[in-house]
Amino acid sequence: MFSCKILLTNRRHILQTTICRAxxxxxxxxxxxKRATAVQKPPMQQEHHSSGNGSFDSVLSATAVIFGGSLLxxxxxxxxxxxxxxxxxxxxxxxxxxKAHDAVRKDLPEYTMDEIVKHNSPSSGIWVTYGVGxxxxxxxxxxxxxxxxxxxxxxxxxxxxxxIFQQHNTEEVLSLLESFRIGNLRPDxxxxxxxxxxxWSTEPKRHPILKPATLKPFNAEPPASILVDSFVTxxxxxxxxxxxxxxxxxxxxxxxxxxxxxxxxxxxxxxxDILNYPKHSVTATIMCGGNRRSEMMDVKPIKxxxxxxxxxxxxxxxxxxxxDVLRDMGVxxxxxxxxxxxxxxxxxxxxxxxxxxxxxxxxxxxxxxxILAYExxxxxxxxxxxYPIRVIVPGVVGSRNVKWLGKIVVSRNESTxxxxxxxxxxxxxxxxxxxxxxxxxxxxxxxxxxxxICTPATxxxxxxxxxxxxxxxxxxxxxxxAIVRVDVSADGGKTWTVAKLDETEKGTGxxxxxxxxxxxxxxxxxxxxxxAVEILSKAVDSNYNTQPESFTxxxxxxxxxxxxxxxxxVTIN
Amino acid sequence: MFSCKILLTNRRHILQTTICRAxxxxxxxxxxxKRATAVQKPPMQQEHHSSGNGSFDSVLSATAVIFGGSLLxxxxxxxxxxxxxxxxxxxxxxxxxxKAHDAVRKDLPEYTMDEIVKHNSPSSGIWVTYGVGxxxxxxxxxxxxxxxxxxxxxxxxxxxxxxIFQQHNTEEVLSLLESFRIGNLRPDxxxxxxxxxxxWSTEPKRHPILKPATLKPFNAEPPASILVDSFVTxxxxxxxxxxxxxxxxxxxxxxxxxxxxxxxxxxxxxxxDILNYPKHSVTATIMCGGNRRSEMMDVKPIKxxxxxxxxxxxxxxxxxxxxDVLRDMGVxxxxxxxxxxxxxxxxxxxxxxxxxxxxxxxxxxxxxxxILAYExxxxxxxxxxxYPIRVIVPGVVGSRNVKWLGKIVVSRNESTxxxxxxxxxxxxxxxxxxxxxxxxxxxxxxxxxxxxICTPATxxxxxxxxxxxxxxxxxxxxxxxAIVRVDVSADGGKTWTVAKLDETEKGTGxxxxxxxxxxxxxxxxxxxxxxAVEILSKAVDSNYNTQPESFTxxxxxxxxxxxxxxxxxVTIN
Lengths: 573, 573
Fold this sequence. Notes:
Two copies of one chain form a homodimer. Chain A is an alpha+beta fold. Helices cover 18% and strands 27% of the residues of chain A. In chain A, the strands form seven sheets. In chain A, strands 2, 3, 4, 5, 6 and 7 form a six-stranded mixed beta sheet that branches. The first copy, chain A, has a five-stranded mixed beta sheet with strand order 13-12-21-16-17. In chain A, strands 14, 15, 18, 19 and 20 form a five-stranded antiparallel beta sheet that branches. The interface between A and B is large, with 56 and 56 residues.
């Protein structure tokens, strides 16, 4: 079996530790760090209906944290170049894949893990193993996004990573990997995945209305038509965006680490300590940064989950005000330079948690309404939405609304998390994966104004009633801006009907409009107009920002902040 | 001469008082109210080079406050319908106009002012006089915008109004008015404008670089190319937007009235009291709500000044924080529901001051940086920019940055000013003057993201140097959002060059970016590309809002918040 080696470099240390840990768990050994203690593996006690958590972006970006992700990225880029196909490769079973990689190539030499470990830098060459295969990916690494992260896996096995990020289990990824093959791993050194703990075994159940884009991690949205049925989205219909296995947290042993880098002080608090703060409720829409990506993909392929327009929901969240907690951490009023970093209890195979940060000024603003939520729609958070504690950052992209909160750090710096630094950013349409420099763009915080037509759906056949068709949808703008108008057209923008704002929040004050507006419009169709009709919607927010007309000029390689006009094509009978 | 009548209705009272007052001033009598005392008529002591003040919108909307404006509005609407011409009618001299209206029409009866005064309502008919002409405008009034304001002039002379709003002195306006003629005014009752004080006699001198759109009131912008020369716009080049004659204020007798409707308390403070507050400086861009209207006019005619892209400037403003003053007025932290109303010392013939309001939450936000400015670019404000005190509301449309500040009112309500209620709002492209209801739209506060190409200008002939053309401009977003990127294209958006942000503010923190960013880009032109080339720019702000592609779908009847892509057409030699 695989021998556990502790190397001198930190990253290698983390990787190897994790591999050891995965094996340990599988063998029933005690978990090896505090986080592993907090996050329990036994069967769930709390089996809510699962529901979406409004948070992050793409599975692919998540996986780009580690080598496997970059390989997938590469493969997809190649695939796009080759056939302009959609990004999702055909899934094959893990067993099939393992079979292929368990095959010894007799034309190639055998290596021991001791030898492979030495190839962990560009100068020595970058080798990895998967199954019995040994691969030299030196040439692959520097050209592609996330290459810094690739080095975590350099000189070791990628099996534990891909055991979690199972979307790598495709013919395409494996074919590409095989093209880098240089040898066979000594059988005794092969990492047996059958011995690894299955991190997906304790996933919560979800409502069948949620259409999964990926199952592991679970990412799913409801049909858009259901969104306009209620101003507050029922929890079980709320989209779910997970990057990693859902941690199973026991609230009795739950700990929230607090650290203030400015003062050098820290402490640990428990669930009941959070309950002791004054309870604050805020109704807020949470939207995935990649919401409506599928529409942007029609311009040009994009790496990322092909979200429709329903990676968004509006809920009432209740919890402690973050500013109250921060004050108790020694943050003073007006001392608002810097950031508040959040870490989740969901971790990757290197024990790196999901992470994000928001500006300290937003966190400390009493009108910013940032809370450490323990309730959603009047019930305890369910596991998919961050049980027991999730940060709710109204007006801000879902990815900063960190779930399963494990740690808060007040810092002069943003989170160093991959998702803060190398994802959830947007670029010029002319920036591609060969030219992108993630440092040149700010991490998305406030989201732009958008609207979407939820009903009718593209392809529907309608009877134009009395010369009108009824159109319904939502509109929302980040940063606390209100929606002041939605215009709808069925004649390509020659005439616009001002929609009725059916449900919108009242009395929250300027800059504090966190909820979407649901709207409806009876849009005239020309007398006798039959056949294909395209219906457009565009929203205007209280800053009088409006949506760009098409996705063409806002296309970006991550497929985020896609807020062009909503367009559905229907047939009038 | 005209006989001074005090009627029972308030508005009539104001009108007649003003007419009396205008006559009084002309006769050298003492001014009749406190405001008239504060605003002096003697020759200016302080003769700065004049420079723009970043404030309001259209002369036409200003004049719509009174009857004359509505008439002009009507005329323009008709003109647009008839020949789609631009809005500005040919100017004729006041003397010529007076001559025409001094002509008695022997085919029509004579009326006394006593008779005319009775015709001051729809039920009795709405009559006005101008020169010796008597006009029945009953049918004109209800159909057109500002009809509430028309009633101020009902049953009286419009001469004093048009003496100030001299843009009515056109053949077109007079022809329309003449079509409503029903009689001749008794010679003794005619309002002699020669006896009226000339409110324009003490206007400051302005720098010749400012190209006036109108002289009285003075509205002018510099050439756009000059804007990109410096991050801080020199005061003398800063656009000027005046609605009314510039008041000539003696700082020694200057009084600022403070009123808190919530507490019922009020007081008056003086210039030195404002100096006693801690001095706060903020570098902020101020932009006219109608900036770039001329581009929107290319879609369809609009009533309003045909501003180019230079009704904007960036300056350092210094003064007292408004929140400090409000606290001394009894406004408590967190009690931020409601509005802060401002009144200028510039008044119309009914003694109605220019007015506007902002949300109290913005005013009280210590990060909102609202100040009562007495300095611009290190010098005392000049007269065109609001000497001695102007409100600076960073991130907010120019029209709320009230100049010549005379009064501050903390209120549960917005300003009732015409400019707050019936102007500086935007509507659907399908809303016209027949269907508009100003109550349905919020008053513009924060401005949307925009950019403009300042050089080259449309029509320029360029030598594409090494296959590139150099493009420069500004980008700005209201509400404290930063500019994060500007994309420039010379091939219709097929490829985009990311501009270099040459000058942009640093270290102001999230939500507190008040200044524009100046940018430049070397944009590739195709090898051998000659002839007409259209260059586009679009900015992205820190909320990832971006500009709409064209003005077509953001066209609005007031021509405000025009933030579509900037497009200049040049010739490559």
